Amino acid sequence: KQRQSGVRNPLSTVHPLPPTGAAGDCTVSVSQPSQLTVDYTQEAVTLQCSFSTAGCPSEPPTSLWFRYGAQQPENLCSDGCRSEADKFVVREALAQNQVSLTVNRVAFNDSAIYICGIAFPSSREPRAKRTGGGTTLVVREVKLLSKELQSLLTALLTLLSIYVTGVLVIFIVLSKSKSDTLRNKETEDSQKKKSARRIFQEIAQELYNKRHVETSQQPEKDNTYENRRALSNYERP
Q1: Average pLDDT of the residues in 38-67
Q2: Do the beta carbons of residue 67 and residue 20 sit within 8 Å?
Q3: How many CA atoms lie within 13 A of 101 on its CB side?
Q4: Residue 129 in contact with residue 119, Cβ under 8 Å?
Q5: C-alpha pair distances (Å), 129 with each of 40, 53, 57, 125, 181
Q6: What is the Cα–Cα distance from 23 to 123, expressed in whole angstroms?
Q7: What is the rounded CA–CA span in Å between residue 90 and residue 157?
Q8: Dihedral angle over CA of 214, 215, 220, 221, nearest 10
């Protein structure tokens, strides 16, 4: 009927007033470290979250933490997590635009993606509620080394590689030198053997020649003796 008469309800054009302290264009930005790796022996680990606001209400924002692991997503610290004895402890420094989540008694199943959220509940702007990209927490079974110890191990490995390379070079040089020495010694021994064999052959040849000469002269002496003896008997009366 109102459409037919062309009369509009004046209440339909009235928008509700924003809550006290709210701004008309509230924008929140949240940033987190992308990854954090710890070893299983660490007592606790703290995940940092920083945020910035523009055009938001003057009231302090609300911080939220979520965890996405192997199981279903978890809403962490819905009760505030203010006790140091809790598994999770939330600390807020809203004046510095910083919040943090501490995970106590670190275990292997604490490996997950931890997401920080900042919200101004009094603002209806979609950008008044934002979450970070999430921090991937990795809990390793092997204890991580400090940067100083890693640098020391790197230096030791470098020195060890240089030492091994030097030993190999020396070994190759000594092996080559020994091989050359053995080759020279074998050559000298071979020459000595050849020289000794030649001398032996010469001695044997000389003995053979001498014996051959003696053998060839012996019958001639015998024939001369027999001829002399026969001549002597012939001349005897």
Answers
A1: 89
A2: no
A3: 29
A4: yes
A5: 34, 10, 12, 8, 84
A6: 7
A7: 42
A8: 60
Q: What would the two tokens of residue 184 be?
A: 């020279």
Residue 40, SS3? coil
* pLDDT higher than 50, residue 77: yes
pLDDT at 124 over 70: yes
Minimal CA–CA distance to 138: which of 40, 67, 61, 206?
A: 40
Biggest CA–CA distance in the chain, Å, is: 203
Cα(107)–Cα(109) distance, integer angstroms: 5
C-alpha dihedral sign at 54, 55, 59, 65:
negative
Q: How far is residue 101's CA from residue 76's CA, in Å, rounded to a whole number?
A: 10
How confident is the model at residue 73, as a pLDDT?
81
How many whole angstroms from its chain centre is CA 178?
39
CA 94 – CA 26 distance, rounded (Å): 16
Closest CA to 45 of 96, 146, 114: 114
DSSP strand pairing (44-54 vs 98-104): antiparallel
Q: Bridge partners of 47?
A: 101
Determine the average pLDDT of the residues in 205-221.
Answer: 70
Mean pLDDT within 2-26:
44
User: Is 123 within 8 Å of 20 (Cβ atoms)?
Assistant: no
Q: What global pTM score does this model have?
A: 0.51
